[in-house]
Design a protein that fits this description.
The protein is of the alpha+beta class. It has one domain. 22% of the residues lie in helices and 26% in strands. It contains seven helices and 13 strands. Helix 3 packs antiparallel against helix 7. The longest helix is centred in the middle third of the chain and has 17 residues. The radius of gyration is 19 Å and the shape is globular.
Length: 342
C-alpha cells in the first residue's frame, strides 16, 4: 500500500519544522491513522489508516495526555486457562459477575456488553461521524531527549465517512472538503466493517494477513493488537463486530490489564494493553462500569534511544513515562450528510 507520506505528516500535526528523512520513511512503514491527504488531479484521497506508535523512528502523530499518569498494577493474561468451549477462564470465577481479574476477563466482559447494546443500523446514503481529541508531543529532535515534561499539543479531529466507503469529508481551513477514498486496512467504512470475520481466530488471521511489521511471531502479535485497536478508534463498530474485536484481542499473547488507568478527560478506565517493540505500551481504554470504548493511550515504559535515520546523523532519546499517543472519543454517530454533527 502506498501513501503520500509527507502530506500525512502535515495533516497529522502543525509543522514547526520540515519532517526528517527518518520520519518520512517511517510514515510509509507505520501507516498512520490519518488519510493520505489532498493530492493533485483526480487521485483519490485515502481514508485514515491504522496508527502505529512511533517506535524506532518517531513520527509526528496525533495523540497524548498533557501529564504523565502513573501506571497501575499490570496483571498478565492466561492465568485462568480456558473452559471446555475454548473461552478464557477468569482467575476470579463469575464472568461477568466476578471481580475484574485479568485482561481476558475484561475483554470478554466488554464483548458481552457490546453485543447486548441497542443498535440502529444506518440507512443507505448516511455517513459515519467521528469526533476525537488527540494530544501529542510530536517528534523528538535529533540530539534531544524527550521527557514526560515535553510540551504537548492537542487537536480535535472531525471526520465523516460515507457508509459505503466511497467518500470522506473533513474541514480544511474552515471549508468542508469531500474526496473519494482509497480503501485501506483495517477498513474505516461501515460497509466493510460489518463484513469482518466474527470468529476470533478468523479475525486474527484476517488482520495479520497483509499487516506490516509482522515478520516475526512477536511483531505479528503486536501488529494484530494495533490493527484491532485502530478498528475501534476509527469506526462506529456495530455490536457483533465490536464483540468480535474484543474476543480476538483476548487471544493475543502478551495482552495485559491496568485497573487504575484514566482517560485523557480524567475518567477512570480499564486499560487493556500490549507492549510494542519492547519499549512502548499501547492501551485500549474501556469504561470501568459499562466497558464502553473510551479511547487509547501509548507511552514509553522504559528509556529508549533511536537512530536519526537514513540521510541524518545522530540519535534521539525518549525517557520512560513519556506519552506517545492519547486519544479520547468525543462523539460517534450516523448522520445524513457530511458536515452534520449529532
Amino acid at each position: 500500500m502506498t501513501m503520500d507520506d509527507l502530506t500525512t505528516l502535515r495533516d497529522a500535526w502543525d509543522r514547526p519544522a520540515p519532517p526528517s528523512a527518518a520520519a518520512h520513511a517511517a510514515a510509509r512503514a507505520a501507516l498512520l491513522d490519518r488519510a493520505s491527504a489532498r493530492t493533485a488531479g483526480t487521485t483519490p484521497r485515502r481514508a485514515r489508516r491504522f496508527r502505529l506508535p512511533r517506535m524506532g523512528v518517531r513520527l509526528a502523530a496525533v495523540g497524548a495526555l498533557a501529564v504523565t499518569i502513573a501506571a497501575g498494577v499490570t496483571v498478565a493474561q492466561n492465568l485462568g486457562g480456558t473452559d471446555k468451549n475454548g473461552h478464557p477462564r477468569p482467575v476470579v470465577p463469575g464472568l461477568p459477575g466476578g471481580p475484574v481479574a485479568n485482561a481476558q476477563t475484561v475483554l470478554y466482559k466488554a464483548a458481552e456488553r457490546a453485543q447486548a447494546r441497542a443498535f440502529t443500523p444506518p440507512r443507505p446514503g448516511q455517513w459515519t461521524y467521528l469526533e476525537t481529541r488527540y494530544t501529542s508531543p510530536g517528534n523528538p529532535p535529533v540530539g534531544k531527549t524527550q521527557t514526560p515534561k515535553w510540551p504537548l499539543k492537542s487537536r480535535v479531529d472531525r471526520m465523516w465517512i460515507r457508509i459505503d466507503g466511497t467518500r470522506l469529508a473533513e474541514y480544511r481551513d474552515g471549508k468542508l472538503e469531500i474526496s473519494p477514498t482509497g480503501g485501506g486496512m483495517p477498513p474505516v467504512d461501515y460497509a466493510s466493517v460489518v463484513k469482518i470475520p466474527l470468529a476470533p481466530d478468523a479475525l486474527l488471521a484476517w488482520v495479520k494477513k497483509d499487516a506490516p511489521n509482522s515478520s516475526t511471531v512477536e511483531s505479528s502479535n503486536y501488529t494484530a493488537f494495533q490493527m484491532l485497536a485502530s478498528l475501534l478508534n476509527n469506526n462506529l463498530v456495530p455490536p457483533r463486530q465490536e464483540a468480535a474485536v474484543y474476543r480476538a484481542m483476548a487471544k493475543i499473547p502478551g495482552v495485559t490489564l491496568n485497573k487504575s488507568a484514566v482517560d485523557v478527560a480524567g475518567r477512570p478506565a480499564l486499560a487493556v494493553s500490549r507492549v510494542i517493540e519492547g519499549w512502548i505500551r499501547q492501551e485500549v481504554l474501556l469504561d470501568r462500569t459499562s466497558y464502553a470504548y473510551l479511547g487509547e493511550r501509548s507511552l514509553a515504559i522504559k528509556d529508549h534511544t533511536g537512530d536519526a535515520g537514513t540521510g541524518e546523523h545522530g540519535t534521539w532519546t525518549v525517557k520512560k513515562g513519556t506519552i506517545d499517543v492519547f486519544s479520547v472519543r468525543l462523539a460517534a454517530a450516523f448522520v445524513d450528510r457530511p458536515g452534520e454533527r449529532p
